[in-house]
Amino acid sequence: MCLPLVLRAARVNLVIVRHVSFGENTVKLRKEFWEKEALWLERETLSALSPAERLIRDLHLKAISEGHFTYDDPETGLKVLTRLRHFLKGRCCGNACRHCVYDLENAPEELKRKRRFNSSFWVDISGSGVESLEDDDDDYDSIFLSIEPKPKNM
After folding, report:
1. Origin, by domain of life (predicted)?
2. For 45-86, how does the pLDDT look when each residue is reduced to its tens digit (9 = 90+)?
3. Is residue 151 in some structural domain?
C-alpha cells in the first residue's frame, strides 16, 4: 500500500510528497505518529526556544517530513534519532534521547536528572542555567505516553 503522508498543524504545514510502500500495520503506526506529531507541534512554545534549539527543531521537522529516522546534529555532526524512529520502536531505549516520546521512562535516574524538556525536545541541563527537571507542562505526557507498544511479531 502506498501512503502519502500529510501533516498540518497550527504553525506547520508540511506535505510529504514521497510515496513509500508499507505493510498495513506500519501504515497504521505512521498514521498514528502523524496525528500525535500534529498535537505535539501545536503545544510547542517556540518563543521559549533559543536560536540553536529552533535550528534543531527545524532540522528535526525536515527529517520527519521526509520520512527519515535521523538527522545530523548541527553542532556535533552526530546522527540524532527522530521522534518518528522512537515512536515506531515502541519503547524507551533508556539513553535519555533528545526526541524520546516516552518521557525517558527507561533512562537511569542520573541521566533523567541531567535533562529537561524545552517544549519541543529534551536538552541537557548543564550550561543552560536550569536547576531542576520540574516541568509544569503536562501536554508532553498526554500526547505520547499513551502510546501502546508495537506487537513483537513485527
Report:
1. Eukaryota
2. 999 999 999 999 999 999 999 999 999 999 999 999 999 999
3. no
Cell 513483537 sits at which residue? 152
77 within a domain of the structure (yes/no):
yes
In-domain check, residue 149? no
Look at the chain and report how many structural domains it folds into.
Answer: 1
In a domain, 68, yes or no: yes
pTM: 0.69
Q: What b/e string do you get for 15-42 counting C-beta neighbours within 10 Å, with b at 16 or more?
A: ebeeeeebeeebbebbeebbebbbebbe
Evaluate whether 114 touches 98 at the Cβ level (below 8 Å).
no
Buried b (16+ CB within 10 A) or exposed e, 66-87: eeebebeeeeeeeebbbbbbbb
The distance of Cα 37 from the centroid of its chain, to the nearest Å, equals: 8
User: In which domain, by residue range, is 130 found?
Assistant: 2-144
Q: Which three cell numbers stand for residue 4?
A: 502519502
